[in-house]
């Protein structure tokens, strides 16, 4: 009689995010490659790369690629650990308040954020989903 096999644990999914406003793409390529290398070293599967470019990269209120990434993360977060991977916190925003707000959106989608240098927003309870305490009745 054979022992039942434990379910195979799937590798976490890394969703690489960046923003880039200039026409020169050299530094962008370096940042993305840093993220890919980091994900490989961690044993993560790269789900894709989302980049807000031009004017979309400059403001904090209109990020179509970021929005699409959050929707994709939300779908996968039901069954796998999902991480938004960026080269540094400034890839979200140079303004700390706006950066934190965007990273909270990642948590609300079921994931957490990590940088290619190992900084992390630790996952919340519930597979990374933000939770609110129950209101006593």
From TrEMBL:
Domain Resolvase/invertase-type recombinase catalytic: 14-117
Ranges where the record places region Disordered: 115-137
InterPro entries found in the cross-reference section: Resolv_N (IPR006119), Resolvase-like_N_sf (IPR036162)
A Pfam family hit: Resolvase
Protein name: Resolvase/invertase-type recombinase catalytic domain-containing protein
Top-level taxonomy: Bacteria, Bacillati, Actinomycetota, Actinomycetes, Kitasatosporales
């Amino acid at each position: 009689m054979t022992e039942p096999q434990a379910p195979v644990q799937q590798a976490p999914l890394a969703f690489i995010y960046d923003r880039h406003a200039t026409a020169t793409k050299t530094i962008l390529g370096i940042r993305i490659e840093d993220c890919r290398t980091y994900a490989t070293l961690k044993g993560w599967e790269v789900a894709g790369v989302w980049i807000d470019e031009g004017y979309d990269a400059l403001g904090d209120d209109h990020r179509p690629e970021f929005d699409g990434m959050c929707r994709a993360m939300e779908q996968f977060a039901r069954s796998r650990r999902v991480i938004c991977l960026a080269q540094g916190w400034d890839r979200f925003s140079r303004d700390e308040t706006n950066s934190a707000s965007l990273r909270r959106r990642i948590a609300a989608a079921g994931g957490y954020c990590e940088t290619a240098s190992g900084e992390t927003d630790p996952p919340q309870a519930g597979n990374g989903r933000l939770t609110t305490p129950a209101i006593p009745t």
